[in-house]
Amino acid sequence: MALFTDWVDVANDILSKCHFNLRLRKVTDCNANVFVALYEAILGEKVPDYIATPGSQDDVHNVQSVIDSLALDYLQISLSHITGERHLLLTHYSPVN
């Protein structure tokens, strides 16, 4: 359980440095809105293909759009082991990757 607590601390540190008035208490608090907000704050651009009216499938789509853009536009490496659906279903691997 300490691993997830460490990741919550890292996430809160990043949120603080991006001037977000948001604190995560647990890994499951990191939802699609957090991913989108961090992407836009750090990269200074809108998430490609963002769907503004969130629902459960739209949240999966928005997280996947963040992951795909990072992989293709910035990192130029495969992030196929991380999916929006896996993250939002809260597997033990996806949120910390």
TrEMBL record:
Pfam families: DUF5745 (PF19016)
Domain of life: Eukaryota
Domain DUF5745 residue range list: 57-85
GO cellular component entries: centrosome; spindle pole
Family annotation (PANTHER family): CENTROSOMAL PROTEIN OF 95 KDA
Protein's recorded name: DUF5745 domain-containing protein
Source species: Oncorhynchus mykiss (Rainbow trout)
